[in-house]
Amino acid sequence: MGVEGGLETLFTGASYGNGFGSGYQDRINSEQFAFPVDKDKLDGRLSAGEIVLTVEIGDAVTAFPLGDIDGGAINGKVGGEPVVVFTAMGGLSVTAFSRTVDGQTLSFEYAGARRFTDNETGTSWDFAGRGGDGPLAGNRLERVSTRRSFWFAVAISFPDIEIHTP
Description:
The protein has helices at 24-29, 151-157; strands at 51-57, 60-65, 72-78, 81-88, 93-98, 100-101, 104-105, 108-112, 115-118, 124-126, 145-150, 162-163. By secondary structure, it is mainly β. The protein has a domain at 51-154: Rieske [2Fe-2S] iron-sulphur domain (Rieske Iron-sulfur Protein, 3-layer Sandwich). The strands form 4 sheets. It has a 4-stranded mixed β-sheet with strand order 11-1-2-12. The protein is elongated, with a radius of gyration of 18 Å. The protein starts with 23 loop residues before the first helix and ends with a strand. 27% of the residues are buried. Residues 1-18 have low confidence and may be disordered.
């Protein structure tokens, strides 16, 4: 158990992808954890080191794997509630919102440059969920509770978690 070279080697290196030191995800994927982990509770549906965003609404929790997302809008549901995950910079920037505005459920597409457009009204939205140009200008999307973590930690914490699949 543990990582050869100790904790000081985990966050060294020129690459700093996904917010973690070079090689750190590879070590986790190889189940070389820097702390005790009950390996019987690991969930093989995703790699242990996969970075996921959990979206939580009430008692419902869904994991959105960030490795498959570059810049974009991921429309989904959590506990039956329509949500959208906005990502930018290869998943380094990520946030989630309710897709319901004034009783209308919206679906979103990435327009580039950290801007998003809803398909129903054509309103342009920024990364903070603020409506710009279009019929819903001035509205704000309601932010939902999220956590960004390694898959192994999420799967241990939420053993029955759903994984969003496109």
